[in-house]
Amino acid sequence: MNYIKNIEHEAALFLKDEVSVQAGQIVSKTLTQNHHISITLFAFSKGEEISSHDSSGDAMVLVLEGTGQFTVDGSEYVLSAGETLIMPAKKPHAVFAKEAFKMMLTVVFPPVS
């Protein structure tokens, strides 16, 4: 059984090549999702956004290509390829594509009691 799906196993690859930008869309590819963790690749077309929301877990973004704008609890961050940002649990955050960009989102959820 594979816990990570939708991506080739035992192969060297570039994550940025695993998801494609499509005009006027946000494209996502879930690699894993359960009660503990979620890992998803995203490709944003220029001008696309995910409006403000929060999460029960800590969210970590890694920009894979291009530049994205992230707003966390009112503070704005502009990240380029190779940069990472932690968006703490329960703090409102949003994403805006200043230009087409790709990112990997990892969310680590609190233990289920």
From TrEMBL:
<dbReference type="InterPro" id="IPR013096">
    <property type="entry name" value="Cupin_2"/>
</dbReference>
<dbReference type="InterPro" id="IPR011051">
    <property type="entry name" value="RmlC_Cupin_sf"/>
</dbReference>
<feature type="domain" description="Cupin type-2">
    <location>
        <begin position="41"/>
        <end position="108"/>
    </location>
</feature>
<dbReference type="InterPro" id="IPR014710">
    <property type="entry name" value="RmlC-like_jellyroll"/>
</dbReference>
<dbReference type="Pfam" id="PF07883">
    <property type="entry name" value="Cupin_2"/>
</dbReference>
<protein>
    <submittedName>
        <fullName>Cupin domain protein</fullName>
    </submittedName>
</protein>
